[in-house]
Amino acid sequence: MADFTDHSNVQRDPAELSLSEARAEHAALASELEAANLAYHRDDAPVMDDARYDALKRRLAAIEAAFPTLKTPDSPTEQVGGALAEGFGKIPHVVRMLSLENAFADEDVDDFDDRIRKYLGWGAQDLSYTAEPKIDGLSLSLRYENGVLIQAATRGDGETGENVTENARTITDIPQHLTGAPEVLEVRGEVYMSHADFAALNARQEAAGAKTFANPRNAAAGSLRQLDASITRSRPLRFFAYAWGDLSQPLAETQMGAIERLAALGFQTNPLTRLCAGPEALRAVYREIEQRRAGLGYDIDGVVYKVNDLALQARLGFRSTTPRWAIAHKFPAELAWTRLEKIEIQVGRTGALSPVARLSPVTVGGVVVSNATLHNEDYIQGRDSKGQPIREGRDIREGDWVQIYRAGDVIPKIKDVDLARRPGDSVAYAFPTTCPECGSPAVREEGDAVCRCSGGLICPAQAVEKLRHFVSRAAFDIEGLGAKQVEAFFADETLPIRTPADIFTLATRDAAEPLRKLKNRDGWGEKSVTNLFAAIEERRHIALNRLIFALGIRHVGEVAAQDLARHFGRWEALAETLDAARPAALAHRAADLAEAEERAIALGHNRRAKVSEARSVAIAAADVPRGAARAWADLVAIDGIGPVVALSLSDAFANPEERAAINDLVGFLEVQEFVKQVAVASPVTGKTVVFTGTLEKMTRAEAKARAESLGAKVAGSVSAKTDLLVAGPGAGSKAKKAAELGVTVIDEDGWLALIEGL
Known about the structure:
Layout: H1 19-42, H2 50-66, E1 90-92, E2 101-103, H3 106-120, E3 129-135, E4 138-145, E5 148-154, E6 160-162, H4 165-168, E7 184-192, H5 195-207, H6 216-224, H7 229-233, E8 238-247, H8 255-264, E9 274-276, H9 279-292, E10 300-307, H10 310-316, E11 326-330, E12 335-347, E13 353-364, E14 367-373, H11 377-381, E15 401-405, E16 413-417, E17 442-443, E18 452-453, H12 460-470, H13 483-491, H14 500-503, H15 506-511, H16 526-538, E19 541-543, H17 544-550, H18 558-568, H19 571-602, H20 608-622, H21 626-636, H22 642-654, H23 656-666, E20 670-672, E21 688-692, H24 700-709, E22 713-715, E23 724-727, H25 733-741, E24 744-746, H26 748-755
Parallel strand pairs: 2-11, 19-20, 21-22, 21-23, 23-24
Antiparallel strand pairs: 1-6, 3-9, 3-10, 4-5, 4-7, 7-8, 10-11, 12-13, 12-15, 13-14, 15-16, 17-18
Helix pairs in contact: 1-2, 12-13, 17-18, 19-20, 19-21, 19-22
């Protein structure tokens, strides 16, 4: 294995990286993962262990979630397998060969079960799973037609594999002919080599003066992917079948039934496969297999869980690279102890104060770690988001000896604290009450786990981060004005860029600058300056959703920006609605505050003065003008928006400094109206649909996705603009309001009949 050094920013929460830092780390991670993919899948010579690979990929995915503009279709997070080796023919997979999502802790198994139940609307009903060892080998797909093996292909990139048919025919565990199989049957499984056979093979290789293999997985992969099938025949390869691809008819109704059918057809299936009744049973099988791991005689690196009912698997479907109905519970990664030297605070774009642990360097899982995330104030104090103790309530202090882990995440985390080694003069860490960058008060709102700087644009850390966000790819994406240039312009005294509007006056200011023109500065030339000014000019014409996203308003990501643009169509309509809704937004906030303070009193907290103040505010704001109430209702009714996003938007537009900066910016722009594209002509095209009550034949997520695919607009509440209410059992106030407004109401069966055949 190669010796890898840590990436410079891996210890920080991705959301708190600058765009330039994120871009640099993203490029480094992508390069390392691409090299690892080629080494593992194409060259059969891994350069890192599985824990390291999984950690890097999780880190890359986290960065792409925080910075969506960095994600491209060829990102390693969107790839399955690796590039094909030269010398083999290519075979396209009729059904893609996907990878699996990973779990690394017991809680992840509960989350997996919860996500499935939520997606299916399954509630407390029984839901069974299968659990089987995750074989550490090479994935192989075998296609049979009329019972005859006609081709075999590796996973490749998930869509196209390498033709290894002749080599696969030499493996004893792979039948050449089947009796009683479907007309078309594509069997999938893993080629592997036992420990005993691996040792014997390496002994023969060494005796012959040939290259020995690093591990059984390398040996199996290298043996299967030989251009000379006689070499493969001489190697002791085995095969476990555990899945299928293209089928002319189903194998069974359940995962376990299908595995038993494969065994009856003559395939080797893993005898440790178990049927489990829920997360606790899955974890019990995991512990059993982990204990038996050393004596199995072949390599495994975890346990795979799958929903047993194949009809439910079909409903759950797939993400871009993984099925929703399966997960691989990986075995734990390495732990290490080291000293926490200092706790530092970093300030991000939204003002979040993020604590980072500076550590005495220590090697964890083959990587040198010197920093670790501390999440937030509660985490340091030994509490979770609900106030419950973590680490048995042990807090974290400077000078402590802490246990570091990297299970499934490149961001190192602190697992525990050794109180026996805590210095005698140790003091509890006091979380700052002011911003370390600008000195503004640091405020933690009710219900928020994060403490935030209240300085807004006067905080240089936030201002720079907002500008970096503004020029990011999914926002204005100005060629030649990236994060590095933004930082330089922000600090520049002659041609500063302190607000987005400053970008669009840069050319005018440069023309008026007699001495220090941009073209005469280091790193710039006449051509690069001309290109930059042209790129800025081009971005004066901007799509509405890009503008909304570019403003960097908290809670407003790309999806919310798209939803807002689709609903309002024009910038003026959005701004007018937010201005009109402000009194209702204040009333909503005041009511929430009063309710929170009353809860605090019920819990015995001494906050009566605040409750009295909150009630006064709520009473003063209670007389909300009818127009404001309508505007607020329109805003929160947008599906995917709701009160949290609406309040964030309202606060941003009502903040004098932010509103001035927004107005200045918009004055330089031509904001394009959002053009609604209807993909399908259907009975609900262009109609506003609301779902309420309990849907029994599909989940709310499924219903919404189906309605939108048919050209409907899905809203979260009933109004005069609603065309159709789909009401299941338990429909309450929405059904009553629909009746009052004369909105058409149908049940779930009526909805399915309406869209049948589409």
